[in-house]
Inverse folding.
């Protein structure tokens, strides 16, 4: 028997939110400015993603000093006021 669209149980996953994370990473005497977009449900999840990114980026470093400048959720709805009627989002 062939299943119809109504018979199929679709798995709907809650989409993870996008976060912008701006930070400085200091390894030894060299400081690098980073701007990353990470995905996570909450701030703790984003912090774990940031740790993974740091481990992948600085594989040879034994110590990394990180200063987070901002960690905020990206708005999914565009701010119409930013376009001043010139463009349609």
């Amino acid at each position: 028997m062939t299943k119809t669209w109504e018979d199929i149980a679709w798995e709907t996953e809650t989409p993870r939110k996008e976060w912008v994370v701006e930070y400085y990473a200091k390894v030894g005497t060299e400081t690098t400015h980073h701007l990353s977009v990470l995905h996570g449900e909450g701030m703790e999840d984003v912090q774990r993603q940031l740790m993974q990114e740091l481990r992948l980026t600085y594989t040879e470093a034994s110590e990394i000093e990180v200063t987070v400048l901002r960690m905020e959720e990206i708005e999914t709805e565009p701010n119409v006021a930013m376009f001043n009627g010139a463009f349609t989002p």
Notes: Strands lie at 17-27, 30-40, 65-73.
